[in-house]
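pls read this stuff:
=====
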Amino acid sequence: MNTVSIRNLSHRYGKVRALDDVSLDIPNGAAVGLIGPDGVGKSTLLSLMAGVRIIQTGSVSVLGGDMAQKRVRRELSHRIAYMPQGLGKNLYPTLTVRENIDFHARLFGLSAAERKTRIARLLEATGLAPFPNRAAGKLSGGMKQKLSLCCALVHSPDLLILDEPTTGVDPLSRRQFWKLVDDLQHEHRGMTVIVATAYIDEAEQFPHLLAMDDGRLLANAPTREVMAQHGGKTLEETYIRLLPEEKRQGAGGLEITPFVPDPDSPPAIEAHGLTKRFGSFTAVDHVSFTIPKGEIFGFLGSNGCGKSTTMKMLTGLLDATEGRAELLGQPVDVGGMAVKMRVGYMSQAFSLYEELSVRQNLMLHTKLYRMGGKSAEAVQNALQQFDLADVADTAPAALPLGIRQRLQLAAACLHSPEVLILDEPTSGVDPAARDMFWRTLLQLSRRDRITIFVSTHFMNEVERCDRISLMHQGRVLAVGTPAELVARSGRPNMEEAFIHYLEEDAKTAGVAV
């Protein structure tokens, strides 16, 4: 019997088609990984399965009930657990760990005795038992997601739906989270688990795979079967092969030539004891590093660890509480423009004008950079260099995420900066578009000697950097080349190395990660 059966499901948001004639079956007790870049319809599909969105076209049957009927959705809510995208989205930050779980248990009508038993069991299973009275808002990202899972599972559901539950969470917490889900599924035999993930390597661990692009299913089969059929050594490679031909162009084949620093050039970026406090909260805690001219320097860490705050201090968007930052040999001045004009900055969120065309956005940036008579030539060069000529007159809102990210990079490079600071520039982008983006970064570094400071939470991107800094809870844990950090940790790969440094840091601090 199937837990989920979907036929000819389509869904629109205005003129945008999020789902396009999707049909699928998910059997009872299955563990399913759902992959695809941002904006391809994953969250829409999961929310329709969970019954929190109204069906427009097609049919959705869950646990034998027609989800088009309000009565059925209400009755099945006691058998479905849905954890939406975002850290702690289903939590109340001012309530304690125990109070959050108890609140959700009351929503499902559990008796006092049932609540007491299930809360105790879930706290023990998730490792949250030592923190029952800690406010949810004071938890780390990994602990928030464990608490969110407790709240979702308190009523012992038959279907568990998780929408990117580990995005932005450190690798140790990710590993603990997935072990917890696996243990709970084995304990509650027959429970079906459907998980969307931004990390394709995570989906490789699930027995069954759903792969999506542009609102359509690319694959719906056992994961190993899909990989064998398409000849991919990894699931990421397999996903690229599933994409249409036009989207596969530029994927793979990245040749990374060794970086050779110029001993006579002064450092491009220096941070000395850089610290930022917001009231009593220390977001960045005495961070120090030096980046030579032309190097690609990676910043790896979970959401909320201080990466973006550090970058904003380096660009002069935020004043440091303590310490100092220097760019190109000059102190960073929040109010000054001289150094800022030599830096290109790409924020984590899309920061261009949706209603202007690609060309108009670039022209506007030439005015911001006061480029005068060089504007038209600079825009034309950018359109060619970043492969945007064919979409020059298109509004960004109509473009795929990968092209929007290239547009942001083009805008940051218009004034020929000496330093590029990029805050998670490929988050949500498909693997093929990510490869194209990195090919451009390598050209800017090796050919133009532009210094690139880039933050990420993708392990395969870290290995493309010349050196990296591992960051956790506002502090730098280690700095070095990827090979050096792996060798120093005694672990086989970068993800295992990061987990090693997190565990060592936790031992030193005497706290849970």
The first helix runs from residue 42 to 50.
